[in-house]
Each structure stands twice: as C-alpha cells, then as structure tokens.
Amino acid sequence: MDTTLLLFIGTAFTFGMVINFTGLPPMVGFLLAGFALNFFGFESTEGLITFANLGVTLLLFSIGLKLDLRTLFKTEVWGGASIHIVSSIVFYALLLLLLKQIGLSFFSSLDIPAVLLVSFALSFSSTVFAVKILEEKSETNSLYGRLAIGILIMQDIFAVLFLTISVGKIPSIWAFSLLALPVVRPLLFKLLDRAGHGELLVLYGFFLALVIGAGLFESVGMKADLGALIAGMLLAGHPSAKDMANSLFNMKELFLICFFLTIGLGGLPNLDHLMIATILSLLLLGKIALYFLTLTKFRLRSRTALFASFSLASYSEFGLIVASLATYKGWLTQDWLIITALAVSLSFIIAALLNKYADTIYTRFTRSLKRFQSKRLHKDDRPVRVGDAQILVMGMGRIGTGAYDVLKQSYGEKVMGLDYDQQTTIKHRELGRRVITGDALDSDFWNKLQLTDNIKLILLAMPDHNGNRYAAEQLSKITFCSFKVAALAHYKEDESELNELGVTPVYNMYVEAGAGFARHVCAEVNLVLAKSSHKQEL
Fold this sequence. Notes:
mainly alpha, six-stranded parallel β-sheet, two-stranded parallel sheet, 24 helices, 64% helix, 5% strand
C-alpha cells in the first residue's frame, strides 16, 4: 500500500483528534495537518485533488437536496447578498489602499485593478465551512441557517459570472438546454422511488451529482459545482431526498477531509506571508459587521443576524480560485496565492471559535446588539406564541397527526400542533387542524417560543430520536411554567435517555406497536384456542 497515503491518513486523523479535544471542529485540525505535511515537503497529489473536488461537489448536491428554491427569492437573501458583496468590496478596497500608502510589504506592489481583485476575492464566504458548521450544530433548517445558505448560493452565482467573464469563455449555446431540466424532474422522482434504500440509492446520488449535475454543466461551459447544486434542487421536496442526503453523508465527509488537506498543502508560507494573512484575518471583523448591519436592515432579529454573520465569517475557497486565476494571468504574484490560502485557513479557525461561543457572545452583548434591531420584525422572525393551547404536539407527521386527532376529540381546540415545514402546516390548517410552524431542532425556535402557564402537556412526536432528545433538553431548561412531557422512542436506550431528561411517559414504538398489533388482531378475530393440560416440549 502507498506509504504516502498512509501518512496522509495518519496525520489527518492525529491533528483532527487533537483539535477535537479542544472543542474546535476537526476541520481545523485537517487544515493544520495540511500545513504540517507541506512543511515536511509533501505536495497535493492528483488523486487528493480529485477527492477534494468530489467532496465539494457532493456537499453542494446535498445542499440542493434540502434547499427550498423559494428561499433565494426572498428579499433578505438576494438583497442581502448583493448589498454585502458591494459594501464588502468597497470596505476591503479602501483598507488595502490605506495599507498600500503605508508601504506595507506586498501591498505596495498592488495597482488599482489588483486591489479590486483581492477585495472581490475576500468578499466571499466559504460554502464548505458554513455548511459544515451548520450541520455540526444541526441548524441547517434554522432561519439563520437557511438565510446563510441562501446568501452563499447567491455568491456562487456571482462567482459563475466572474469566472465566465475573466476566463473569457462564453458558455455554449447548448447551455440554454439546461432550462429544460425541470421537465425531467418527474422522471428523476420515479427513479428515486425505485432506487430503494441501499447501495442503488447511493449510486443514484453520485449519478445525479456528477453526471446530471457537474458533468452536464461543465460540458456546456458552466460551473460544475453549480450544476451539482441544481441537480440536488431538482429532487428537493421528494420524501426520499433526506434519505439520499443521509446515505451520502459519510462519503461526503471523508472526501471533504481531502479538501481541507489540499488548502494546507497549497503553499508553505514565510513570516511575511503569515503577517499579511494575519492582517487580512483581523479585517474579517469588518466583514462580519457588514453582514450584521445588512441583515438587521431587513428587519431580522439581532440574534438571527449575528448567528448568520458568524456562519458566514470566513474567507472562501473561491478566493483561492480567484488568486490562482489571477496568478496564472499575471495579475497577481505567486505570493498572493500563498497569502490567500493562509488567510482562508486562519479565517476558518476564527469562524470556528465565533460559532462555538456564539450563544455566549450574544448573551454578553444582547443589549448593545438589540439597538440595531427593528421594532417591526420580519414575519419569519417574530415570537412563536401558543395562545390558549394546553396541549402541544411537536412533529405533525403520521404519528403526531394521529395523536393530535385523538386528543382533539377529547379536548377540542385546546390542542395545538407544531411542524417545521410551512407547506405541511398549511395543509393541516386546510383540514381544520390548529397547527403553527416551528423547527424544534432550531435553537432559534426555542429562543422565540413563548410558552405560558396554560400548557399542561407537550408530546414530542418527531420521527428522529435526536430531535426528541434535543427538544427534551430545551424543555428541561424551562422553569417558569410547569407541564408534563411525553415522547416517542425507538429503542430501550432512547427511553432511558429521555427519562433522564424528565420525560415520562415514553412510548416505545416497537414494543407498543407489537402489543397493540396483537390486541387489535385478537379483538378482530375473536381467536379461541383449545386448552392443553401439558406443555409440549420443543
């Protein structure tokens, strides 16, 4: 076996594990592993780069699977992304010109076009990093998470336009045929129905991401990663889309390790490079402030704006693409490619720390941050009120809906349901159920939820144990009103975990379903067995 491969795996694991002990995301360790390998003379291999690109492609495909296209048309998304990128370019350009006037190393050689180019590269945020952070916090479905992902997608669109213009390569006339992709969506849905839940589902995901998405777009002169994103969006909304995303998760994570290693292996910095990259990393605070101020102007709560800003608080791998292209074209020196790679790496470390302590930072500066908050909040960011409801069912899937209907027969309009999907909420309301929208896996939801002493019982009916456990953890922190909490569980250990959080009773689906099945059959069949005076040996 290739000893270099073994060394790369061992180094990545060692650094990732050490960083994990500090509480930071392992991706920071993978970056440092890349720099350590670079220090000892190793370089990126063609295979490593291929796997890294595959990881990014699968990541964007996974984003597409979970993306609601309507998010991109929201004013705070396309407007926020547009305003921020312009203001960010101006911000960085002015500061770079100031550093040029001071005569600081590497800045003095920048002319106006080069300053604008570097500023443009620094205005983007890392899609890979942001989505990884949101996934680790289980907050991709939160309002601020959806907002951050929407802004990142808008930035990807800007990136496509830049690369098209700068490379001078106009997309093929066949690119217009991509507009017909929605027509094949029903066929893709039928194939997904037949793919099942095994290896064929995984292979179908690779086929869509790499062939229908990246390969097809690249063949007509479009950005491959954008194609993977759109391929995922074609399947968004299908009941099995989440299963496909879950089936690809581990492979995507493994390939992304290669991505972070390649950044560290990109070039070995000297002290001057490190100094300039450190200065650029400190300027990241200005970029965060611009995100925060921009988003609060769209009437979002200060907490939502801050958390979204922290998710976007990094420099982008797209900056490396810009620097590489500019170096190839002779617009920037090779030094700036190394500086950009180092600045991206340092920004990941800074952003990881900010996201880890986001709640602490917000709590510490709540009063100051709320000064920027609009008095009339965005409709999606207003407090979640339960009114006069006395029973709350969290999770309006099949089991939650069944529980709601039975309880409604006894308690009438005192029962209220809650579901994370707005479309599901609308369908329930059309059927006469009292349901509101809210994601119990979103920490922001618990920050907005306004429970009252009226609430006597809360049912955690979400299909995923992690969701029920997280909700139970949040409910255990509420001390200003008293209520009982009941929940679903799949396994005995799940029951114990929920019991420790004060949840009782816990309904074990498998045990209770078996008992209920037997009772139902006996009642329907009226089975009478002959009595036997002795037990037959088996």
